[in-house]
Amino acid sequence: MLKRLDKIRFRGHKRDEFLDLAESPNASDTECGDEIPVKIPRTSLRENDELRDPAGPGTINMASGVQDFNRTESDRLNEIKGHLEIALLEKHFLQEELRKLREETNAETLKQELEKERQRRLELEQKVNEILKTRTEELPTTQQPSKPPTQVNGTDKRSQMMCSRVQKWFYDKFGEYVEDFRFQPEENTVETEEPLSARRLTENMRRLKRGAKPVTNFVKNLSALSDWYSVYTSAIAFIIYMNAVWHGWAIPMFLFLAILRLSLNYLIARGWRIQWSIVPEVSEPIEPPKEDLTVSEKFQLVLDVAQKAQNLFGKMADILEKIKNLFMWVQPETTQKLYIVLWAAFIASCFFPYRIIGLAMGLYAGIKFFLIDFIFKRCPRLRAKYDTPYIIWTNLPTDPQLKERSNATVSRRVQTASSRSYVGSGAPTGVNKDEDSSRFHTTKRGNFHEVFNLSENERPLAVCENGWRCCLINRDKKMPTDYIRNGVLYVTENYLCFESSKSGSSKRNKVIKLTEITDIQKYKVLSVLPGSGMGISVSTPSTQKPLVFGAMVHRDEAFETIFNQYMKITSAASNSES
Fold this sequence. Notes:
- This protein has helices at residues 2-17, 45-52, 59-69, 73-105, 107-143, 147-152, 155-180, 198-227, 231-246, 250-269, 295-327, 332-351, 354-378, 380-386, 388-395, 399-425, 433-439, 448-452, 480-483, 555-577; strands at 442-443, 446-447, 468-473, 484-491, 495-500, 510-513, 519-523, 535-539, 547-550.
- By secondary structure, it is α+β, with helices and mostly antiparallel strands.
């Protein structure tokens, strides 16, 4: 648009230079008034002489000059209208630029903040004026009873002056600190959340890894000391620790180690190359950040971060749930041991001096860390039998484990009750166990054999008793409602059954005979996404394009089940024919 405006401007300047305005743009008559001064073209002396001399050689020039002079007023108005159009276009573009600048600078928010600050300033000025008025009103009332003694002597005036000076000095020195203790209402500030971006995600992952590196190195060094990775280092550390605990220098030793670590960090920050670690550090290659990521790379990055976050949150939840269940008597035999230990520690703290208790705890911690843990790590059977803290911690249940236990107990009770009722009522004669179980197997919409119009002997396999959630993609259909259908996939001994979830009629369900399948393979619906996909394609003679069962979470399990049953049926059919 700006280039177009420059072209218009260039054309306007050409109008001033050349007098022929036949190509000037037309405009509406309402854009300008009639009283507009008309410019008279200036002619040189030579042209005037030629115009005065009608018989001269410049008769042709004189005729053209007369035509230009006799131009109508409408042509000049068209010229002025063209200039007005250019001015209006310039005004429009300038308004657009001003609007963009206002949006970028957030002028409205700044104005609102300025208005708030002005209101606060006015409120403070009003408060200060009110305080000054109250003080001026209090001063005359206090000075009126003191007037009679001032007539007697002038010592009261001096005392008042001294008091005012002392008050002023005290306010100047300590007024700022007094104002700090004034209560003010808290302002609730809402933090703005950043939008999701792949670059920010990778940067935060690297920051977290760099920040957790000192902690992980410290834990690695402790485990190396306990595992006797370096025999000399572990032996020296064990002797120093036991000697410090025996003489009561355990706390000063830890404080000295902290000071030594800070001193080494100071020297490292100054440029010294100091590296002390029991376990040799392995430098990992730093990958440069990619600026432009493809859609598949971004999706894979989000999946990796989600997997790491899932595992990390799962471990943290297991630890917190175990601690909660330990103190809430969820497993009474485990909590009872902790209860007895706490009572023993309480009684010992009441009767024994703290020096003996600290010595006993320090010696036990050293022997446990350097000797007992080393033996238990090398001998897992001994650890499983005699390491009490390890046994207690591993036996503590989490909330999902408790839920599974409760569901298992409920299912056992239901099975025992159903078996008792089944035995009490008695089964009809001539019906075997398999037929009876298949007869009572139902889906969400009714009995299995009634939904798919199959014989009563056909029932889902034990692996897919509840079915697999998926969507059927029939590429032979053209209607969107028939092209994709959500539902559940079942596998029986002879059939592959798909139950649609949106319609109660059996017309939308799909039944495929396993012997009619010509090809079955894993399928990837979207080639852009990473991984091997979440679908299974099945080819039959009755369909031009293979049917696709997509969006299956347990795709591999379903594929193995269908393929094994297909191979079993085909091999049995080939054996019977031979």
